[in-house]
Every structure is written in structure tokens, then in C-alpha cells.
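ugh finaly. both done.
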Amino acid sequence: MTARAALLLVAGWVTAAVSGCQAGEDRRGVECIAPANAGGGWDLTCRSAGRVLGELGLIRGIVRVSNMPGAGGALAYAHVVARRAGDANLLVAASPATTLRIAQGQYGRFSADDVRWLGAVAADYGVIAVNPASPWRTLDDLIRAWRADPRRVVVGGGSAVGGQDHMKILVLAQAAGLDPRTIRYVPFDGGGEAMTAMLGNFIQVFSGDGTEVRGQVQDGTIRVLAVFAPERVQGHLGGIPTAREQGYDVEWLVWRGFYAPAGLPDSIAARWADRLEAVGRSSQWARLRTETGLAPLVVTGAAFDSLVRRQVTTFERLSRDLGLLP
């Protein structure tokens, strides 16, 4: 479903939504919308944080996860804006994929102002990887191949053209002094499909996130050339150099966080920010981070709202620089 179709689907709901919203929290338990199918990063964010919220006794009842795929999060965003205003029992998983689409106008007339940004509780980082049988053993090897014949190197990722996985590669090309327009990118329906295509030699390079390659790194079925982090990370990516230390000034932080509907009283929004702060700093969450390969990051409340708005501005400028926006 396209973003436009998603917006049209909810176009008639706005008036009814206002009268049906929740003014405060109740005993229904909390709903967390993952704007994608089960198994992805947004789904993991909802389920993991929901589990810890319950374990810490920070909510009544349970966190019920609702998967709402469609148009890269546009369907869920439109649903929340149009139908759930003021609902104090609703969280929605988000990441830079959300802010990137807002920056590129993929959510139609909706902007970052139409929801409440609550907080981020973990971080992931972009990675670039190849088949273990590939002749490219370092990022420099790959860049040299691109310089020699950029049309012969095909990259795949789990996002659409212009999405996160594509943007990471364009930013890398820009940092390497290559023309981003020469980079061949093939979108797949998720990182798993893209990695399968790479291992089958249908594409040569995989662009994704660190958590996506955890199992493959541990099994030795993928070779990660670089991590797009400010410094080396621990866990399954320990020992893998960053792009920056290899001479390419590229960083791609994938925060894992949440927004809520607009219309929440400030006191309830602040309460949610405090809960997420408690989750992010708990020993239970630290164990879950280790299990899933996520890195520490806790940013909530006003600081997170500022981060989101800076990121939207940065992504809009970057998208124009890379020719993805007029």
C-alpha cells in the first residue's frame, strides 16, 4: 500500500476520532503498535519493551502488540493521528525509518508535529556486509571495486528506494567521493530476503543493521566490512572496524523508540517518558539488549523530541543533496 493510499483510507476518520479518544489511562492495559509485520525491528521494540514494562510493574495489565504494516509506517501514523488522539494507553514503535519518511514527505500532510515523541531505549547501527566468499575483505576493497566499475556492484537492503538501507549506501558513496547516482540498489521485503539474495550471489553487497546480521555473523555465513558507529561496538560485532576508522566519515544510528498520539496531557506524556527511562536503565533491559544485539541508548522527553526534529531536518537536507527530493 502506498503512503497516499494509507492516508486516503483514514481520511474520513478525523472527526469521529476526537470524540472517541481516551482522556487518561485505564485498566485496559497498553497497546503497542508495530507499523510492520511480526519479526521486524519495530515488532521487536514493542515486544521487548512491553515485556520489561510489565516486569518492572510500570503499567497495569499487559502490553498488547498490534502489527499494522503498510507504506513503511504511513498507515500506522495516519491511524494514530486520525483515530487515537489523546489515547494514553497507546505506544507506537519508531526508528529513523519513521523520521526519514517524514522528512521525505512520505506521510503526506502529516509531520513530526502530529504526534508526541516519548523516548528511545536502545540503539542499533548500520552495517555493510558481503558474502564470505567475496574477494572484498575490507571496506577499501569494496570502494576500489566501485571506483573501477560502479555498475557491476549491486547492493541490496530491506528498505525501499530512498529508505534507510539505501540512504546508508548513498552516504557511504558520498563520503568515498563516488557519484551516488552510479550506485545500483535493489530493494527487498526485509533484511532477511536481501541477505538470502547476497548469499545466492544475486547481489554482491548487503546494507542493513547490526541486529539483522547477528545470527549470520555468529555462524560465519556473512562478512561484515564495516559498522556505521562512532566507535567499535561490543557483542557479535566486536572486533569489526567502523567505517570512520577505515577513513570514511559515515555514521548511521538506528535508535529504537516510541511515539504516542497527540493530545496527551503533559503529565501523562512525562509519565511515559519516565517509564521508558526506567526501562532503558534497568538490568532486565540490559539483558534483553545483550540477547538481541542492541547497544545502550536512553533519550527521553524533551531531549528525544529535539533529537527527532533535528533528524528530520538533517534527513530532508541529505535527501535533497542525494537527489531523492526536488
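ok and the 2nd:
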Amino acid sequence: MTNSAPTDRPHRTSGLNTYLRLLGYVRPHWRAALLALVSMVVAAATEPAFAALIKPMVDGSFVDRDPWLVTFVPLAIMGVFVLRGLTTFGSTYTLSWISRNVVMRIRSELFARLLRLPTGYYDQHATGMLLSKITYDVEQVSRAGTNAVSTIIKDTLTVIGLVAYMAYLSGWLVLIFCLVGPVMAFLVTWVSRRLRRTARRIQRAMGEIASTAEEGIQGP
């Protein structure tokens, strides 16, 4: 039985399948992932909380001049900012820690796989390309996965909270959001697809640069 060698052609797998595979590497660190999840949920909740505090501050401080609101609302806003800072730092630090461990595991598995490949594979592929896969490509995959988790959880919950608060204030605000939202979603989807294609070209270019640098350093 011979080992099937990986090819340099990009695999046409969906982004969802890629992220599901990455979750398999995150599973051993589920405690840290749970902490990051809770931190992102709390950080997302501070956004509508801040918006909810703005209205009583404006109405009570500048219009009604309520002494209780003048004292309480600024303190509450400071508390929200401190809480958002702590939870944002906690989620960012935890996700970065998970990302480093995922990168280490992927690189170890990739290196172990390269050790088992036949010599013919190395005759057909430049060393610089292989080094680029171990260093640059793995780093980009891990970074993209971390950013995707933050966007899907934190930003989505933030939008939901703000839309719910808009619905509480006025139905017209929700109507405007419903009209503008699909257009923004289309633009984000279109830009994301172009960025993925650009990322693939950058990965190939990094491999070519590494190969060229290797040949130049080794000399004739």
C-alpha cells in the first residue's frame, strides 16, 4: 500500500467543511474555548447595553437634569467599558492561545506526513513550496479560523442585540435595517469570496518566493 501524496492544487472544499475540520483540533481545548465563548457573549452584550445607557444619559442629564441619572449613568457607562475591555481581552487572549496550540498540532501532523511520503514526491515539488505550507499556510488557516469564530459569535450576537434594542425603541429602525441588511450581506459575501481567491494566490506566491530564495541561497 502506498501513501497518497498531497497535491499543490487547491481543494474545492467549502468554508464550512474547513471550519468543521478545525473544530476537531480545538476539541482538546474545550475548556479554554468555553471561556472564550462566555467572554465573547458578555462582550457582545455590552454593545446594546452601552446604547441603552446613552438615551437616559442624554434625556436625564441634559434635558431633565436628574441628579441621580447624572451620577449613575456615567458610572454605569464606565463599568460597561471596563467589562467590555476585560471580556474582549479574555476572548482575544484565549483564542490566540488555542490558535497557537492548533498551529503546533497541524504542523506536527504535516511534518509527520511529509516524513512518510515517497522520494518521488520531493523530486516533483520544490522544497520552498513545502516549507511555505508548513509555515505560512498553516498560520493563515489558524488565523482565519480564529477570526471567523470571533465574527460569527461576537459580531452576530452584537447585531442581534442592537436590532432587538432598535425594535424596542422604534419599528421604523428595524424596517430600515431590514432594507439595508440584505444589501450589506450581499456585499460581505461577495468580498469574502474574492478575498478567499486572493488568499489562495498569496499562498501559491509565498511558496514560489520561498523556492526562489532557496535556489538563490544554495547557488548553482
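summary for the 2nd one i guess: The two ends are 37 Å apart (CA to CA).
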